[in-house]
Amino acid sequence: MADAVHLLGGIDVFVHAVGINRRKPIEEYTDGDWNDIIQINLSSAFFTAQAALPGMRAQGHGRIVFFSSVAGRTARPGNGVSAATKWGINGWSESLRRELLPDVRVTLIKPGAVATELPDHITRTAGSSAAPASR
User: Most exposed residue of 46, 89, 91, 128, measured as fewest CB within 10 angstroms of its CB?
Assistant: First the structure.
């Protein structure tokens, strides 16, 4: 991050748009599945935003944009770990938004289904049917 600040003179906008999913019943998740999803979907947002913040605070302005998912509002069978990370991004970004106002703005985008290659990388489709979020 220091190299980017040095080369570019500062960071005005930071965008975190990373995510993976492994759709399967909860008892089939391995420790590696859990760790991969949490590290990529949640921890990477924490650590990269944390690295961008000192420069934004020092320059007195900036914008941080997180991409979450509707999975952060409505979980489906077989999608629990990914949904948990998206709920985490939602809560953390709201807290961060309040902490950084008025100088650094935080935006959270929660898209629904988007035509990407993500479905091609989901190795199991069990539990992929829609289910009500709550009753």
Answer: 91
Domain count, the chain: 1
Within a domain: 126: no
**Tens of pLDDT, residues 5-14:** 778 788 999 9
User: Residue 60: is its pLDDT beyond 70?
Assistant: yes
**How many Å apart are CA 59 and CA 55, to the nearest integer?**
6
Is the backbone peptide bond immediately before 119 cis, with ω within 30 degrees of 0? no
Contacts of residue 74, defined as CB under 8 A and 6 or more positions apart, other chains included, come to 133
Q: Is residue 127 part of a domain?
A: no
pTM metric for this prediction? 0.76
Any domain includes 132 = no
Beta strands in the chain (DSSP E): 13-16, 62-67, 104-109
